[in-house]
Amino acid sequence: MSILEFLDYAGVAVFAATGALAASRKHLDVIGYIFFASVTGIGGGTLRDLVLGATPVFWIENPLYLLVCTGSAMVVYLSARRMESRYRFLVWLDAVGLSAYCVMGAAKGLAATGSATVALVTGVLTATCGGILRDLLAGEPSVLMRPEIYVTAALIGAGVFTGLTLFEVPMIFASALGVISAFCVRGGALKYGWTLPVGDPRPPRHPDDVL
Amino acid sequence: MSILEFLDYAGVAVFAATGALAASRKHLDVIGYIFFASVTGIGGGTLRDLVLGATPVFWIENPLYLLVCTGSAMVVYLSARRMESRYRFLVWLDAVGLSAYCVMGAAKGLAATGSATVALVTGVLTATCGGILRDLLAGEPSVLMRPEIYVTAALIGAGVFTGLTLFEVPMIFASALGVISAFCVRGGALKYGWTLPVGDPRPPRHPDDVL
Amino acid sequence: MSILEFLDYAGVAVFAATGALAASRKHLDVIGYIFFASVTGIGGGTLRDLVLGATPVFWIENPLYLLVCTGSAMVVYLSARRMESRYRFLVWLDAVGLSAYCVMGAAKGLAATGSATVALVTGVLTATCGGILRDLLAGEPSVLMRPEIYVTAALIGAGVFTGLTLFEVPMIFASALGVISAFCVRGGALKYGWTLPVGDPRPPRHPDDVL
Known about the structure:
The structure is a homotrimer. Chain A is mainly α. Chain A has one domain (about 5-195). Chain A has 9 helices and no strands. In chain A, helix 5 (about 85-115) packs antiparallel against helix 6. The mean pLDDT of chain A is about 90. The interface between A and B is large, with 42 and 38 residues.
């Protein structure tokens, strides 16, 4: 198993676990856990494959990914009661998944097109869309809307991987450094509340006030 | 017209009607009814075709589906005022659509890949995504979040169809039994409030408490 | 550059700006502006290309679109503070984008399939989906739910373009008249509150009352 395959399964498994934790917060049944785990685990990669035209998408070609999601869901189903804070666990797992998936997504985009710009975008897309879908379907405020650095961490991880690969650094080092960069940035943001400056801090007016 | 074609049009028509009922609840105009009817009617099948790589998707190949959605929207537009409860009608129609579409989706997934796992997933996907999209776009709490059995009914319908087909039961019996199983499970859940046990009943904490 | 190429870049740029304005209203950082600008700018066209099977999608084939989105995001990031009402600016820009994109989407659908029905649908889809995605991801009430005419304007623009093209009116006139029709309808709706009659004005009941 290459490092990219390992990152792929690791990303699916931890994103799936965050989906199952969202299902737990919403008091769903076991099938709800599996449904949310699958949508979150394979959502980002599905969108990546669709825009690249790599269809049938990866989990149709290899249903093992679905079993990984189901397994993650079962582990969470059986253990969530023992967690002190499901949400804290969710956001930290999401950080691990983001770090694995921004490199995976960039690698697939780079392999498919040779374009560094596309690699950055597919890296960010793959890393963020599973979590965005999870929050949308659960009706929770999107992780995108929180002030701590999120998309930026995926962009940095994808950028480090893509840059090193273009300089012909071996795949294993480029991947590892990409994952570590993304995780340090996102983890630091979670732990120390790192943010970037906001563009315009005025409160939004209500739509009805202004038409 | 084969039983699968019949289920396909029936699924589109009844899901379209649920979309139009959501439009009615939101006080939209006639174009809004048609828009919601179309998104709900063809949304699940569109996602199924995209992940299978069966593009252009079914309603581009055969625009008759769009006319079915428009027709359903018009019927609801002209008759919704006479309904006692639009929401109750919506969820029961949704149950009919779910039952038709879990079999249709499983049949397409099985025909395209031969994999029973894929058939279960495309069955569930096709059956649930139209309703999920409808609720998301209407800004209503997702039917996924309600306690009564929902995804499970689609999984059972897809499983009965796929299992019987793999044992070479003729298509018409496998389809009919799949539809009936799904409808009995979902209908019973609606009527008697059937649920499966939840994994972890602790209330969710607010995200801001725990970071 | 043909008129369709011009409309394409113009649609991407103005939709991207509306995404950046939504990011501004949500107090995101500069990467958040670029993320929202890109999702809104290329979202509708991405869905159009996916359902038509035109993959890899347009911005993978030509990453210049992503630079246009980034540029729009930067302009908004640097200037939003000086705007009196970001939301009013957002809805008017959205009207411009809608008008450009309903024609672009209809042109692509017509070229790919020759079907007028498909052209209408891809026109509406391309014109509305970027804004729908933007509102969904930002957690704002969807522009679809507002009473003023919206989807109808896209449908009229796509219809004018498609009808004139089928009567062999030269592309430049058909395009210009399509854009102008859509903009007049949407602009009039914004300025004068134009609406179409609603189907059923009864308030929705709460889902829990009726199951």
